[in-house]
Design brief:
It contains 5 helices and 4 strands. It is an alpha/beta fold. The protein has a single domain, classed as Barnase, Chain D, CATH 3.30.370. Strands 1-4-3-2 form a 4-stranded parallel sheet, with helices on both faces. The termini are close together.
């Protein structure tokens, strides 16, 4: 498998095994968002708040998420967001997953225009690259 951090971010990509260890070698900051317990949009926003280490003042809406991910003062220039249990989340919550993906990909494009890197990495429990 090609190391995702050796190339510019391209959509939502499979997370490497031990993403934090791999990212450290490329000076990429990593945060993980656990989607396994998400039941609705409120739960998703809470998971994002926790995973991104945001304050309670986080607006808990799509615009606020976009702003947090694209604000140069809030995120390092080389940043990876690991979405834990992403495939299962998308299956359980098709509409919510599509909305999340749209915001994440918009933020990724905006980051690229600012000469910043925002990797979006999908990690599954018991990750086995042969299942991708």
């Amino acid at each position: 498998m090609i190391n995702v951090f050796g190339a510019p971010p391209q959509g939502i990509q499979p997370a490497p095994h031990d993403p934090r260890i791999v990212a450290a070698g490329y000076q990429v900051a990593v945060r993980e968002v656990d989607l396994s317990g998400v039941r609705d949009k409120d739960g998703l926003m809470l998971a994002l708040l926790r995973g991104l280490g945001l304050s309670e003042s986080f607006g808990r809406n799509w615009d606020a998420l976009y702003d947090v991910l694209t604000d140069p003062g809030a995120r390092p220039a080389r940043f990876a967001l690991v979405l834990c249990d992403y495939a299962h989340f998308r299956k359980r919550h098709k509409h919510l997953g599509a909305e999340l993906e749209a915001v994440l990909l918009d933020a990724q494009r905006d980051a690229a225009r600012q000469d910043r890197n925002l990797w979006l990495l999908a990690e599954e429990p018991d990750h086995d690259p042969r299942h991708w």
